[in-house]
Amino acid sequence: MRAVPGLRGPRGPTPGLLSFLCLLAAARPSLADGGDPDSPFTSLPVQEEMMEKYNNLSMESYNISLTEQSSMPVEKNITLDRPSNIQLTCQLTTSRDLNSVNVTWKKGDEILENNYLINATGNILYTQHMFTITNSKQMGSYSCFFQEEKEQRGTFNFRVPKVHGRNKPLISYVGDSTVLTCKCEGCFPLNWTWYSSNGSVQVPVGIQKNMYVKNGTYANETSLKITELLEGDGGSYWCRALFQLGESEDHIELVVLSFLVPLKPFLAIVGEVVLLVTIILLCEKYTQKKQLDSGTEKEFEQIEQLKSDDSNGIENNAPRLRKTEPAGQ
Ligand SMILES: *[C@@H]1O[C@H](CO)[C@@H](O)[C@H](O)[C@H]1NC(C)=O
Ligand SMILES: *[C@@H]1O[C@H](CO)[C@@H](O)[C@H](O)[C@H]1NC(C)=O
Ligand SMILES: *[C@@H]1O[C@H](CO)[C@@H](O)[C@H](O)[C@H]1NC(C)=O
Ligand SMILES: *[C@@H]1O[C@H](CO)[C@@H](O)[C@H](O)[C@H]1NC(C)=O
Ligand SMILES: *[C@@H]1O[C@H](CO)[C@@H](O)[C@H](O)[C@H]1NC(C)=O
Ligand SMILES: *[C@@H]1O[C@H](CO)[C@@H](O)[C@H](O)[C@H]1NC(C)=O
Ligand SMILES: *[C@@H]1O[C@H](CO)[C@@H](O)[C@H](O)[C@H]1NC(C)=O
Ligand SMILES: *[C@@H]1O[C@H](CO)[C@@H](O)[C@H](O)[C@H]1NC(C)=O
Ligand SMILES: *[C@@H]1O[C@H](CO)[C@@H](O)[C@H](O)[C@H]1NC(C)=O
């Protein structure tokens, strides 16, 4: 059995910290009640402080498992749209001496000093970082590092929900109405905003007389209705969802076709002309062919007559013989 207090923190051995935590745990047994019974961490002073301040927030737990054989860092994408208490756990299964493994946590490139716990059972090393996300600055990437012979990394990427517009352009015609729709899965944005882009500038929708933002049936969708489309209404439209922890947007391309409408009568005339010309050409070809056919027929007859007069029967037998040859083989 390996003694846990021998574990090293980010700056060499920190038995002091761990015994301090154990003491805290012993002194306040009531804290363990809120914890996960399966967790290798019995109690956390950070958690207590956090829970007191943000006890109305939900607790979200995520974990990553690493082994000494892991060749690639392990990543987890986490979607979060409201302030939450976060509990991140990384575990490393290794055959090496756990005391020689250094543990570090980073947010982006920034080292999180002593703001985490380390524990071990058997050949598994656990580390846990607990914190609260209440604003967009606290979103981003949180990574745990296990430094042994090779460095093992687990990364938790926190993002607001993705908004989905439309991949393909939406095609409409001048004078028609159209509805652009954006959605996000299982999310509850505070509100939605629509923008139309004029060149590289985003213009909020609302000034234009022919555009109305319609509330979706649910908070997870929004629609923009555009009536009496003009050619100038074509372009990019952006829908933006605002969350407590940031915003997310996507775009829809609108193509307004106009040339087909005035072209319609013209196209009809062109169609008729093409049909007439085709008929005329066909008639001409037909009569030409007839003339040609009757001409060659006469010539043929003459030649045939001459041939039958000259050598009767031989011409007809030759191809028949050739045909039977393959069958005989
Ligand atoms: C470490 O894990 C063991 C077993 O899971 C547990 O009994 C112990 O209380 C933990 N220590 C800390 C400081 O959480
Ligand atoms: C939770 O409590 C904090 C601090 O008391 C407060 O600012 C926040 O609005 C509360 N959030 C909710 C969802 O009630
Ligand atoms: C780790 O996460 C997985 C799912 O991703 C879950 O099944 C497992 O129970 C978690 N383990 C701990 C110790 O929280
Ligand atoms: C996480 O998101 C990034 C960027 O969107 C993506 O490249 C990566 O494949 C995602 N990872 C997982 C495990 O889904
Ligand atoms: C762990 O950190 C200590 C002190 O900073 C250092 O001496 C040791 O080489 C590190 N171990 C590894 C495996 O990087
Ligand atoms: C939007 O929310 C409703 C009701 O909660 C749900 O039925 C629907 O599936 C959700 N749509 C998306 C795209 O998440
Ligand atoms: C959305 O909410 C934010 C913050 O409450 C506010 O500044 C913005 O004007 C709102 N937008 C709309 C379109 O209501
Ligand atoms: C687009 O921008 C140009 C100049 O930058 C301006 O004249 C025009 O009115 C704008 N159109 C709309 C629809 O805002
Ligand atoms: C759309 O929703 C907003 C906020 O949820 C509300 O203030 C507004 O009255 C709604 N508009 C319509 C037309 O239902």
Features:
single chain, alpha+beta, five-stranded mixed beta sheet, 4 helices, disordered N terminus, binds 2-acetamido-2-deoxy-beta-D-glucopyranose
Task: Itemize the secondary structure elements and their pairings.
Elements: E1 8-9, E2 12-13, H1 15-27, H2 45-53, E3 58-67, E4 74-79, E5 84-93, E6 102-107, E7 110-111, E8 116-121, E9 124-133, E10 140-147, E11 151-159, E12 170-173, E13 178-183, E14 191-198, E15 201-204, E16 211-215, E17 221-226, E18 235-243, E19 246-257, H3 260-310, H4 314-328
Parallel strand pairs: 3-5, 4-11, 12-19
Antiparallel strand pairs: 1-2, 5-9, 6-7, 6-10, 8-9, 10-11, 13-17, 14-15, 14-18, 16-17, 18-19
Bound molecules: 2-acetamido-2-deoxy-beta-D-glucopyranose (9 copies).
Residues 38, 61, 63, 89 line the site of one 2-acetamido-2-deoxy-beta-D-glucopyranose (NAG).
Structure commentary:
The radius of gyration is 40 Å and the shape is elongated. It has 329 residues and is α+β, with helices and mostly antiparallel strands. The chain has helices at residues 15-27, 45-53, 260-310, 314-328; strands spanning 8-9, 12-13, 58-67, 74-79, 84-93, 102-107, 110-111, 116-121, 124-133, 140-147, 151-159, 170-173, 178-183, 191-198, 201-204, 211-215, 221-226, 235-243, 246-257. A hairpin with a 5-residue loop joins strand 16 (211-215) and strand 17 (221-226). The chain contains four helices and 19 strands. It folds into two domains: 4-159, Immunoglobulins (Immunoglobulin-like, Sandwich); 170-257, Immunoglobulin-like. Bound molecules: 2-acetamido-2-deoxy-beta-D-glucopyranose (9 copies). The site of one 2-acetamido-2-deoxy-beta-D-glucopyranose has 9 residues, from helix 1 and strand 8. It is found in: Cell membrane; Synapse. Residues 301-310 have a biased composition (Basic and acidic residues).
